[in-house]
Amino acid sequence: FKNLRSLEVCGGGITDAGVKNIRELTCLTHLNLSQNCNLTDKALESIS
Description:
Mean pLDDT: 91
Order of helices and strands: EHEH
Strand order of the largest sheet: 1-2
Strand content: 5-15%
Number of domains: 1
C-alpha cells in the first residue's frame, strides 16, 4: 500500500490508533475520513 494515492474510510469506525498507520502512506494525495466520530483533533493534526 505504499503507493496508495487515495483512501476513503467514511464512517468506517477508524480510531486514533488507525490514523497512525495512515501517516506511513507518503504517496497519499486524497483522504476522506468523514463521519468517523471516534477520531480526535489530535489524531487529525498528526497526519496534516
